[in-house]
């Protein structure tokens, strides 16, 4: 099933079921795509307006980046489902004998690393989206300023959601050095970009109230 192409009601129904995928990672990618698209909409409502002629070129450039990010997020919905299946199977591998224990440990090391790579990429894309939405909020059409605020709130939610999917997998890693490295990268993105997203949101809110 292509989770990025099913109707919204179907995605929500499957998400609510006991089916193993989609889960929090895929949902975070979808929320990231929606947040990015809201920023992109601000750009769409800005280009072609005489009032914003000075930023027209920049708006088109930012919109191009959003177009790519949206595609990336939708791809990551599918990738998240793809990497979860081998992980779920690995957890069920037998470990009665020493050979079985060694084989399970070998496979787990591979699949846990893969399972971390997708939400980590989702987080990186969310950071890019927040940077772009900051520009839309500052320079885009004031008629769409609320959409920039909603967009950055969604990007922040996706960032935080994806981080939990990294942390749950690093917790199971036997390679504690790699786990610490990945956790530190997540910590840094959360620290920097939740604060930046909050600043953008508060700025938008202040302009509306």
Would you write up a description of this structure?
The protein is elongated, with a radius of gyration of 20 Å. It has helices at 8-16, 24-44, 56-91, 98-139, 145-170, 176-208. The chain is 80% helix and 0% strand. With 209 residues, the protein is mainly alpha-helical. The protein is built from six helices and no strands.
Number of helical segments with 4 or more residues: 6
* Strand coverage percent: under 5%
Biggest sheet descriptor: none
Distance between the termini: 44 Å
* Secondary-structure-derived class: mainly alpha
Q: What are the low-pLDDT stretches, counting only 5+ consecutive residues below 50?
A: none
Rg for CA atoms: 20 Å
Average pLDDT, rounded to a whole number, is 96
Write the layout of secondary structure elements.
Elements: H1 8-16, H2 24-44, H3 56-91, H4 98-139, H5 145-170, H6 176-208
Annotation keywords:
single chain, mainly alpha
Sum this structure up briefly.
This protein has 209 residues and is mostly helical. The chain is 80% helix and 0% strand.
């Amino acid at each position: 099933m292509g989770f990025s192409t099913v109707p919204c009601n179907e995605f929500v129904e499957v998400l609510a079921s006991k089916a193993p995928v989609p889960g929090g990672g895929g949902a975070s990618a979808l929320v990231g795509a929606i947040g990015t698209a809201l920023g992109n909409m601000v750009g769409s409502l800005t280009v072609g307006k005489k009032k914003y002629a000075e930023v027209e070129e920049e708006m088109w450039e930012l919109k191009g980046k959003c177009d790519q990010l949206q595609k990336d997020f939708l791809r990551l919905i599918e990738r998240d489902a793809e990497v979860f299946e081998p992980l779920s199977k690995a957890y069920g591998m037998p470990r009665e004998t020493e050979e079985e224990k060694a084989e399970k440990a070998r496979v787990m090391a591979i699949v846990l690393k893969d399972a971390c790579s997708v939400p980590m990429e989702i987080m990186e894309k969310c950071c890019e989206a927040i940077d772009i939405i900051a520009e839309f909020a500052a320079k885009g059409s004031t008629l769409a300023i609320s959409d920039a605020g909603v967009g950055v709130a969604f990007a922040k939610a996706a960032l935080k959601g994806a981080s939990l999917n990294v942390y749950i997998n690093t917790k199971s890693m036997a390679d504690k050095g790699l786990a610490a490295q990945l956790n530190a990268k997540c910590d840094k993105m959360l620290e920097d970009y939740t604060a930046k997203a909050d600043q953008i949101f508060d700025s938008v809110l202040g302009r509306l109230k």
